[in-house]
Specification:
heterodimer, A: 152 residues, mainly beta, 5-stranded mixed sheet, 10 strands, B: 708 residues, alpha/beta, Four Helix Bundle (Hemerythrin (Met), subunit A), Heat Shock Protein 90, 5 domains, 6-stranded mixed sheet, 20% strand
C-alpha cells in the first residue's frame, strides 16, 4: 500500500474502491486510484522476442503503451476463446503501461479489514503478486499488488 | 539573499560572456587597433564582474575587474595589449571558465561564505538540487510569443465546440418535437386538416435539414482549423527545444587560435550557418565530435606555412565550418584546403593493422577507405603529437553521429584538401526510416543504417550464407530468423535484401518487401520493453498502427554470434557488367535510388548514386558517364538546376539526362525540358521496361540519336 493511498482515501465506512476484472472465471481486483482508463484491446502489435508476460504494444490515443499479459504473470493458461479482451491503462508508473484482461466486472468497495492473506498453498511466485484475498457479492476476489505485477 | 537559485542563470550568462570575450579577443589579435572591439571586451568584462559580484562569486569578479582595468588602459593606448598581455588575458578567461564550470557542477562558492552572505546551515541537498543549471532551457522571446498567440486561438476553438454542442442539442429537440407530433397524428383519423399538417412537418424537416447542413459545414471547418492549430502547436513546441548551432560554433575561433599556435600553423577560419537551429540534445552531443574534426583538420590536414608556400598555396590554410539545413536534416561541414588524405597511406596502415589484405584493399572505393579514419585506434601517422595523431577521438565522431541517427561522409583529394560532412537530424524526435514487411507485419529500419537495397536477389542467396557483394563478404540473414519468427512462406526467388551498415560490419537482411521511406516520430520504449535488445523504439503510422523500429547494431551482433556455427561461405560470381561507363542516379530518397539501381544493374548496367545535384556534379566531372537519371526535389541543388549546369558544361553537355519526378504537371515538365532534359517520367507511373528501353536507346545512340 502506498502512503499516498492512505492519505488520499480515508477509509470510508464501505471501504476502498477496487476495479474488479475477470481472467477466465476468476475475479481479480486492483485499487481504483491506479486506473487511468479502460479500453477495448484492439490492434495489439506483438513484439517479436519480447518476454512472455509482455503482450505487445497498443496505441492508446497517440501514446504507445506496453501491454502486460495478466494471465502470463499469474501463471494462468492463455485464453482459449480467442476473444479480444480489454486493456486497463494504469497510472503512477514512470512509463505508459496497461494490463490485458478478459473482461471488466465492476467497482467494489472493499474494507481493508476484510482482506485476508493469499492461500499459503500457492506457489511463492504467485503469492508475491497479491496484496490479499477478499470477497464481494459475486464471489472471491484476488487483490493484486499492481506494482509487483507490472515490474516483474 | 539565498543566491543558489540564481547560480544556474549566472552560469549560462557567464558561458555566453566568456564566448563573446574569447571571440572578441581573437578579433583584436587580428586587428589590434580596433577601438570598437576593445570597447566590446570592456563591456563584457564589466558586466561579468557585476553579475559575479552580485551573487558573491568574488574570485570571478576579481579577475573580471582586472580585465576591465586592463582594457580601460587599452582604450587610452592600445599598445598596452602586447603579445604577452594576450596570453595573460586568454589564461584568465580559462580560469574564469574553469570556475564557472565548477559552479555548474553544483560546487558551492567558498567566497560566498567569506563575504558574509548568510549561507546558513540549511539542509545540504535543497540548494544543490535547484542549482542544476543543465536542466534549464533558455528560449528566445519570439518563440514564446508565437506560442502565446496560439493560446487564445485554442480558447476560441473550445468555445466554438461548446456552441456546436448547443446547436446540436437544439436540432435534437426539434427532431424530438416533430417525432411526437407525427406519432400523435398517426393515432388520429386522416382528415383534410391532418393532410395539411403533413406539409407543415415537411417544412419543419426542411428547416432541420438546413440547420444540420450548416452544422456539418461548421464542424468540418472547426475540425480543419483545429488540425491546423494542433500542427502549429506541435511545431512550436519542437521549436522551443531548438537552439542555433552558433552556441557550439562560437567556441571555435578561440579553439582554432589555440590549436594553430600549438601546431605552428596559420589558419583562416570561416564559419557559416551559425543561425541554423538544431534540437538542444543534438547540439550538446555534436560539440565534442566537431572539436575532434577541427583538431584533426589543423593537425593532419593543414600543412605548415612553409610547406604550403612550396605547394603554391597561400601560407594560411583555409578552414571552413558550415551548417546548412536540408528539410528535416542539417549538414555540418568541416573543410580544409590542406594536404588531403592519401589512399596509399591508408591502405598501408590498414594492412599494418590487419584490417584487410592488400589485395582486398585495392578493391575498396576511396569512400570506404576514407571511412577508416573513424576506426578506433586508426592513424596513418608514424609519430604522434600532443593533441591528435594517436587515433583517439575520430572514432568518437562516428559513434556519436551513429547514436544520433546521422551519417558521416568524407571526401578528400590529395594536395587539395579534405571535407567531412555530418548529416544529422534536426531533432531526435523525427527519424527517417524505411518501412518493410516481414511475416505480414510492418517494421521499420532507420534509413541511416541501410546502405543498399537489393531487389530480386537470386535464389542462391539464403539465410546463413556469406555472400560476396561488391568485393566484400557479407553474411546474409533472414529477418524472421533474427527476430525468432517462423520463416515467411514467400521465401522464393526475388527476395529483397537490405545491406545494413553497422559500426562493426555489414550485414544482409532478407525481408519480404520494402514498402516506403517515411519520417516518423520516434518514441523510446521504457519499462519491460526498454531492455529489448532488438528494438530501439517504436513509432505510429498515420493510420495509428504501431511500428517497432529495429536496432540494427544489436541484430548484427546476433548474426556474428551465430556465425561460427551456421555460416557457410559461397562465393557469388560477380554480376555481368555490360560495356558501359555507368549510369548516375541522382536521388535523395534511398528507396527510390535503390529501385532504379535494382532495375538497371539487373540489366547489367553499372550504377552509382548521388544524393543531390552537388554530389552528382562532383562525380560526373571526375570520369566518363553514359547517362544521368535525376529526381527533381533534392537539397543543395535540385534536378532541374543540375540539368542546367550539365548543359552549360562543355564536357558534360552531350550527356543524356532523364528526369524522374513526382511533379507531373505540364509546367514541371516544361521547365525540365527547358533546362535541357531528354526525357521526363512521372514517379510511380513508368514501368521497368519503359525506363530500361530509354536508357538502352540513349546509351546506344546518344542524346541526339533519340527522339523522345
Amino acid at each position: 500500500m502506498t502512503p499516498d493511498e492512505t492519505a488520499a482515501e480515508p477509509a470510508k465506512p464501505e471501504g476502498d474502491p477496487y476495479l474488479g476484472f475477470f481472467l477466465g472465471d476468476e475475479m481479480y481486483g486492483l485499487p481504483l486510484h491506479r486506473l487511468r482508463e479502460v479500453c477495448r484491446l484492439e490492434h495489439l502489435r506483438r513484439v517479436p522476442g519480447a518476454a512472455a508476460h509482455v503482450a505487445g504494444l497498443v496505441n492508446v490515443r497517440g501514446e504507445i503503451m506496453c501491454a502486460i499479459d495478466a494471465r502470463a504473470i499469474l501463471g494462468l493458461a492463455p485464453s482459449l476463446s480467442g476473444e479480444v479482451g480489454y486493456l486497463i491503462a494504469l497510472r503512477d508508473f514512470d512509463y505508459p503501461v496497461g494490463l490485458v484482461v478478459d473482461s471488466i466486472a465492476d467497482i467494489f468497495p472493499i474494507d481493508p479489514s476484510a482482506i485476508d492473506a493469499p492461500p499459503s498453498a500457492w506457489p511463492a511466485e504467485r503469492i508475491a503478486c497479491f496484496v490479499g484475498m477478499s470477497s464481494v457479492r459475486t464471489g472471491p476476489i484476488g487483490l493484486l499488488d499492481i506494482d509487483r505485477v507490472v515490474k516483474r | 539573499m539565498d543566491t543558489s537559485a540564481f547560480t544556474g542563470k549566472f552560469v549560462e550568462e557567464a558561458r555566453d560572456r566568456l564566448k563573446s570575450l574569447g571571440n572578441a579577443l581573437v578579433r583584436l589579435e587580428a586587428q589590434p587597433q580596433s577601438a570598437e572591439v576593445i570597447a566590446e571586451i570592456f563591456r563584457e568584462a564589466h558586466s561579468l564582474k557585476g553579475s559575479a559580484q552580485m551573487l558573491g562569486f568574488l574570485d570571478i569578479s576579481h579577475i573580471a575587474h582586472q580585465l576591465e582595468d586592463l582594457f580601460v588602459a587599452a582604450k587610452r593606448d592600445v599598445r598596452v595589449i602586447d603579445g604577452r598581455a594576450f596570453d595573460l588575458v586568454f589564461r584568465s578567461l580559462d580560469l574564469i571558465a574553469a570556475r564557472v564550470e565548477e559552479l555548474a557542477r553544483g560546487k558551492a562558492a567558498p567566497e560566498a561564505a567569506k563575504a558574509g552572505a548568510p549561507a546558513g546551515q540549511k539542509p545540504a541537498q535543497a540548494p544543490r538540487r535547484r542549482a542544476a543549471p543543465g536542466q534549464s532551457l533558455r528560449v528566445a522571446v519570439e518563440k514564446l510569443d508565437s506560442l502565446t498567440h496560439l493560446a487564445p486561438e485554442m480558447v476560441i476553438q473550445s468555445l466554438k465546440a461548446t456552441e456546436r454542442h448547443h446547436e446540436l442539442r437544439r436540432v435534437e429537440l426539434s427532431i424530438a418535437r416533430l417525432r411526437d407530433r407525427v406519432r400523435e397524428a398517426r393515432l388520429a383519423p386522416p382528415t383534410r386538416s391532418r393532410i395539411a399538417e403533413l406539409g407543415e412537418y415537411a417544412d419543419v424537416l426542411d428547416s432541420i435539414t438546413r440547420r444540420m447542413r450548416s452544422l456539418v459545414t461548421n464542424v468540418s471547418d472547426d475540425q480543419a482549423r483545429l488540425t491546423l492549430i494542433t500542427e502549429e502547436l506541435r511545431q512550436h513546441v519542437i521549436d522551443l527545444t531548438m537552439l542555433p548551432v552558433g552556441t557550439v560554433f562560437d567556441t571555435f575561433p578561440r579553439a582554432v587560435r589555440d590549436l594553430s599556435r600549438s601546431f605552428d600553423k596559420e589558419v583562416e577560419l570561416t564559419m557559416t550557418g551559425r543561425e541554423t537551429e538544431l534540437e538542444k540534445r543534438v547540439i550538446e552531443k555534436i560539440a565534442d565530435p566537431l572539436v575532434h574534426l577541427v583538431r584533426n583538420a589543423i593537425d593532419h590536414g593543414l600543412e605548415s606555412p612553409g610547406d604550403r608556400k612550396r605547394a603554391g598555396k597561400p601560407p594560411a590554410g583555409a578552414l571552413l565550418i558550415a551548417a546548412e539545413q536540408h528539410g528535416n536534416r542539417c549538414h555540418i561541414t568541416v573543410r580544409d584546403d590542406g594536404r588531403g588524405i592519401d589512399p596509399k597511406a591508408l591502405r598501408a596502415a590498414a594492412v599494418r593493422k590487419g584490417i584487410a589484405a592488400a589485395a582486398e584493399l585495392e578493391q575498396w572505393t576511396n569512400e570506404r577507405l576514407f571511412n577508416l579514419i573513424f576506426e578506433p585506434g586508426f592513424s596513418t601517422r608514424t609519430e604522434t603529437t600532443d593533441v591528435s595523431g594517436r587515433g583517439v577521438g575520430m572514432d568518437v565522431v562516428r559513434v556519436t553521429v551513429d547514436t544520433l541517427g546521422g551519417t558521416v561522409r568524407v571526401q578528400s583529394e590529395l594536395g587539395r584538401g579534405t571535407t567531412v560532412v555530418l548529416d544529422l537530424p534536426l531533432s531526435l524526435a523525427l527519424l527517417r526510416v524505411v518501412l518493410i514487411e516481414v511475416s505480414g507485419e510492418i517494421t521499420a529500419i532507420p534509413t541511416a543504417a541501410i546502405r543498399r537495397i537489393l531487389n530480386g536477389t537470386p535464389e542462391t542467396m539464403k539465410h546463413g550464407q556469406v555472400v560476396e557483394i561488391e568485393g566484400e563478404s557479407i553474411p546474409i540473414a533472414a529477418l524472421t530468423a533474427l527476430l525468432g519468427q517462423p520463416a515467411s512462406g514467400a521465401a522464393s526467388a526475388g527476395q529483397t535484401v537490405l545491406i545494413i551498415e553497422t559500426r562493426e560490419g555489414r550485414l544482409g537482411v532478407m525481408v519480404d518487401a520494402v514498402i516506403e521511406e517515411q519520417e516518423l516520430v520516434f518514441q523510446e520504449l521504457r519499462g519491460p520493453l526498454g531492455d529489448q535488445l532488438t528494438i530501439a523504439g517504436a513509432a505510429l503510422l498515420g493510420n495509428g498502427e504501431i511500428v517497432p523500429i529495429l536496432d540494427m547494431q544489436a541484430l548484427y551482433q546476433r548474426v556474428v554470434q551465430s556465425a561460427g556455427t551456421e555460416m557457410a561461405i559461397t562465393t557469388q560470381a560477380p554480376p555481368v557488367t555490360r560495356q558501359s561507363s555507368g549510369v548516375l542516379v541522382v536521388e535523395d530518397s534511398l528507396v527510390a535510388a535503390e529501385m532504379h539501381r535494382g532495375i538497371l544493374s539487373g540489366a547489367g548496367y553499372h550504377v552509382e548514386i548521388a544524393q543531390d545535384g552537388v554530389e552528382a556534379l562532383e562525380l560526373l566531372r571526375r570520369r566518363d558517364w553514359d547517362l544521368v537519371i535525376t529526381d527533381v526535389d533534392m537539397p543543395n541543388m535540385n534536378g532541374v538546376e543540375l540539368t542546367v549546369h550539365l548543359r552549360a558544361d562543355p564536357r558534360l553537355r552531350r550527356l543524356p539526362v532523364i528526369i524522374v519526378s513526382s511533379r507531373d504537371s505540364g509546367d514541371n515538365r516544361r521547365s525540365g525540358f527547358d533546362a535541357g532534359a531528354d526525357a521526363y517520367l512521372a514517379k510511380g507511373e513508368f514501368d521497368q521496361n519503359e525506363i530500361l528501353e530509354l536508357v538502352r536507346k540513349f546509351i546506344a545512340h546518344g542524346r541526339e540519336g533519340v527522339t523522345p
